Amino acid sequence: MKGGNNYRLRGRNLSLTLAVLIVTTIALWAWEKNPFSNTLPSAQERYIIPSSDFHADTRNESAVSWNPMEKIGENSSQVIITAAAKGEEKHFGTAPVDAISTIIPEMIDSTSSSQTKICNYAKGRWVADSRRPLYSGFGCKQWLSGMWACRLTQREDFSYEGYRWQPENCEMPEFERLTFLERMQDKTIAFIGDSLGRQQFQSLMCMASGGEESPEVENVGKKYGLVKARGAIRPDGWAYRFPKTNTTILYYWSASLSDLVPLNISDRTTDVAMHLDRPPAFMRQFLNQFDVLVLNTGHHWNRGKLNANRWVMHVDGKPNEDNKLAEIRNAKNFTIYSIVRWLDSQLPSHPHLKVFFRTISPRHFVNGDWNTGGTCDNTIPLSGGSEVVQDESSDPVIEGAVNGTRVKILDITAISQLRDEGHMSHYSIRGTPGGNDCLHWCLPGIPDTWNELLIAQI
Ligand SMILES: *[C@@H]1O[C@H](CO)[C@@H](O)[C@H](O)[C@H]1NC(C)=O
Ligand SMILES: *[C@@H]1O[C@H](CO)[C@@H](O)[C@H](O)[C@H]1NC(C)=O
Ligand SMILES: *[C@@H]1O[C@H](CO)[C@@H](O)[C@H](O)[C@H]1NC(C)=O
Ligand SMILES: *[C@@H]1O[C@H](CO)[C@@H](O)[C@H](O)[C@H]1NC(C)=O
Ligand SMILES: *[C@@H]1O[C@H](CO)[C@@H](O)[C@H](O)[C@H]1NC(C)=O
Ligand SMILES: *[C@@H]1O[C@H](CO)[C@@H](O)[C@H](O)[C@H]1NC(C)=O
Q1: Which of 46, 118, 154, 260 has its CA 20 to 30 A from that of 438?
Q2: Contact 322, 352 (CB under 8 A)
Q3: Cα 68 to ligand 2 centre (Å)
Q4: pTM of the predicted model, to two decimals?
Q5: Which residues form a coiled coil (predicted)?
């Protein structure tokens, strides 16, 4: 989990509080007793543990909890955990070394032994790579929606497919689908969010299957109640299981990440209560079955969408009467903070679960918006630059909401901002002119990178 949310605090508020841990290092103690010691260098050496794996209590510097510790019953040998910020070190206690070797082996960056290396996945650059894309845009018909398969449209330039993201200071293991599935043995990865979350889900299905026909992959939507209702265009989500490794990947549509409850169930035109402070029922019901949960929201937070869906904001079980909160921007912020707080409260009792909040996917409409003739016609990759140098996220709402919690940020905003040529643009599978989609991405394409970053941080 080399997530760098704490690192991104650098330069803002580098006080001595634990919340500003930049790099957490681990010194081994009694390492020779540890069965995994052959993979671990000498006791004098130090290991960087991503600070995002530590939950620091800013009110009390001696109270620090470390998520993986909750999984560990016995201590064969111990490590001393220290955190370093601006050259100062603090000692936080000890933890069993097994936790480090077995649960989070990729966290031990043995190449960085003595010098401190800081990892922020969102900082780095796009580089051309002939091993991209990870699957063919002509294939993956089992999971890839035709509307997002740019190879099936009139588009002729596909140079946007040939890049990968190289973080500045993080190891990015090359994606290898069988290794990935083995790592995800008996695990369930859930995406909950809007259509951009659905894109990320389809991307991961294509990556995991290599885009090849995979008749053995089982549709397990029913287990999660994901079946098409009568008269519906599609179900609320999809769930598939790779039988060899018993890995399930699912998606549930929840554009606002709030609980939606029709006010009159027997009336098809009823208003819908949108509970800003209550996670979707689906999430509450199935949370204990997830090992990895990836959330996103953002583009449905506008008055037009709320009105069209007849969503009526509710707080504390009642219609919202706070005018300030009723402003879309505030309601969105309130909802995001609420759901992060709820998940943070759930994580101690779900020790196998890792939760990521994906930052907003940028839109690239120029000379207008989606409904006023905006376009995104550039096809030349990275014409606006290929690097992200900033430390902080371009999505301060998500960055702020997860700050100091056990929920991790999957920061893709600035990275994707550089890829305006990767959208659907005016191409469509039917070839009819008209709309410009500068919101959704071609697949294969940018969301594949989001998944590579996710996998690197799992
Ligand atoms: C801080 O936490 C430590 C260990 O949990 C506890 O002993 C101490 O009383 C706490 N101090 C304050 C000020 O809460
Ligand atoms: C684990 O560590 C604690 C405190 O350091 C010690 O009291 C206990 O005996 C240890 N347990 C085992 C199984 O070594
Ligand atoms: C598949 O994994 C789940 C846990 O995610 C487990 O409960 C189930 O027993 C496994 N099924 C098989 C056939 O191994
Ligand atoms: C719910 O809708 C049905 C059908 O439109 C209507 O007959 C009924 O009166 C409504 N119930 C309430 C409590 O408004
Ligand atoms: C979002 O909500 C949090 C928690 O209530 C608050 O601290 C923060 O200032 C809000 N941010 C914005 C942009 O409104
Ligand atoms: C995170 O929280 C700490 C402590 O409350 C604060 O100093 C810091 O500015 C916050 N960072 C962000 C990015 O919100």
Answers
A1: 260
A2: no
A3: 17
A4: 0.75
A5: none
